Amino acid sequence: MNLNNLEEWPDKYNSIKEFYDWCQHWPKGYKKNNPFDFYLDFIGYSLDRTGGYRYMDPVYKAGDNGYGHHERCLMADALKIFEDTGYEDVYKYIDLLKPFGPSKKPSFDVVNFIETRSRG
Asked: 85: which DSSP letter?
């Protein structure tokens, strides 16, 4: 699949965009614990595209960061894309959302994270 803008993609990808849009009011970057960053880590996108993780707190603290029932439902809907779609197509769609900004470079020190933090 070689589509260059979000509008060209099939409707089945809308759940990813809906989750991304919902999470835009969360702070981004180092130690900000955005629920969409959690999703990107969970599906392997962060590691594949940047070589590191975005969601910095242990998973069991997600509720403390505002990751509630609605966010879990949005993530569940966004995960359903994998029922019949490969990772690379999903990653290409997410690339168009530019979740890490224009440069796609991680906004944290990966080495520092690995040396000092456990993902829980």
From this structure: -
Selection from 22, 62, 25, 27 nearest residue 41 by Cα? 62
Residue 117 has pLDDT above 80, yes or no: no
The rounded Cα 22 to chain-centroid distance in angstroms is: 12
Instruction: List, for residues 35-53, the tens digit of each pLDDT value.
Output: 898 999 999 999 999 898 8
Phi then psi for residue 41, to 5 deg, are -65, -45
The sign of the torsion formed by the CA atoms of 28, 101, 76, 22 equals positive
**54: CB partners within 8 A, 6+ apart:** 34, 37, 38, 40, 41, 46, 100, 106, 108
